[in-house]
Amino acid sequence: MDKQMLAWAVYLAGGLLFGLVVWRICRSWLRYVRHFLLVTYAVFVFTPFSLNLADKPDAYAPAFFIAVLNTLFLGEDAGLDAAVTLALIWVVALVLSLIYLLATTRWRKPKEEAPAAD
C-alpha cells in the first residue's frame, strides 16, 4: 500500500467517524434538515478531485480543499474547476436525497379526534 492510499484510508476513517458524530447530533432534528446536513457534509468531505500533477497524474485530494487552497494561492480561476465539480455533485446528491425522502415518506391521514364522552 503506497502512502497516498494510506493517507486516503486514514482520511476516510476520520471522515466517517466525524460523520457519525454529525448524525448523532442531528438525529432528533427534522428529517429533511438532517438529510440536507448529512448530504452536504458527505459531499464536501468525500468528493475527490485530481491534483493534475505532471509526475503523478493519479493523485487526488478532497475537492473542497483543492477549491479553497487553489483560490487562495493561485487565483480565482485555478479553484473554479474544483468548485464547479463540487457544486454539481452537491446538487445531484441533494436531488437524489430529496427523491429518497419523498419516496420513503409515508402519507398518513390525520388522526380523527374521538368524540368527547358525556
Fold and architecture overview:
This protein is mainly alpha-helical. The protein is built from four helices and two strands. It has a two-stranded antiparallel sheet. The radius of gyration is 21 Å and the shape is elongated.
Brief overview:
Helix content is 69%, strand content 5%. It has helices at residues 3-26, 31-46, 63-74, 76-104, and strands at residues 48-50, 60-62.
Map the helices and strands.
Elements: H1 3-26, H2 31-46, E1 48-50, E2 60-62, H3 63-74, H4 76-104
Antiparallel strand pairs: 1-2
The mean pLDDT is 85
Q: Indicate the structural class.
A: mainly alpha
Largest sheet properties: 2 strands, antiparallel
Estimate what percentage of residues fall within beta strands: 5-15%
Q: How are the strands of the largest sheet arranged?
A: 1-2
Distance between the termini: 77 Å
What's the number of extended β-strand segments? 2
Order of helices and strands: HHEEHH
Quaternary assembly: single chain
| Bulk shape | elongated
Low-confidence parts: none
Instruction: Give the number of helices.
Output: 4
Helicity, in percent?
A: 55-70%
Radius of gyration: 21 Å
Key phrases:
mainly alpha
